[in-house]
Amino acid sequence: MQAPLDAETVSWYSATLLSIIKGRDFRMPQVTIYTTPTCTYCKSAKKFFEDHQIEYAEYDVSKDIEKAQYMVEKSGQTGVPVIEIDDEIIIGFDKRRIASTLGID
């Protein structure tokens, strides 16, 4: 007799099946946010990611000149937040676009 599945495994299978049904890619997207310490919209974006259990990499462009240059090259912007989801650039905290890009209803 096979042991019952634990809650985490059941949750993963459910999410995977739901993603397949919806025609979405079920792998975790690569999310990067370019921020500064005083940016209110950056804090809101990070809270949004945390509330939706989205893992992300954060770079403080006020301290990391290489990442700041990369951000400007990719986005054409010097303001933050700049959010990169896989290869898509989102400028500012555009909650609807972020949710749509991540497949969050």
Features:
4-stranded mixed beta sheet, alpha+beta
State the total count of DSSP E strands.
4
Order of helices and strands: HEHEHEEH
Shape descriptor reads elongated
Strand order of the largest sheet: 2-1-3-4
Uncertain spans: none
Task: Work out the helicity level.
Answer: 40-55%
**Main structural class:** alpha+beta
Report on the biggest sheet: 4 strands, mixed
Helices and strands in order, then pairings?
Layout: H1 7-21, E1 31-35, H2 40-51, E2 57-60, H3 65-75, E3 82-85, E4 88-91, H4 95-102
Could you please describe the fold and organization of this structure?
It is a single chain. This protein is an alpha+beta fold and 105 residues long. Helices cover 44% and strands 16% of the residues. It has four helices and four strands; from the N terminus they run αβαβαββα. It has helices at 7-21, 40-51, 65-75, 95-102; strands spanning 31-35, 57-60, 82-85, 88-91. It has a four-stranded mixed β-sheet with strand order 2-1-3-4, sandwiched between helices. The chain starts with 6 loop residues before the first helix and ends with a helix.
Summary, kept brief:
This protein is of the alpha+beta class. The protein has helices at 7-21, 40-51, 65-75, 95-102, and strands at residues 31-35, 57-60, 82-85, 88-91. The protein is built from 4 helices and 4 strands, in the order αβαβαββα.
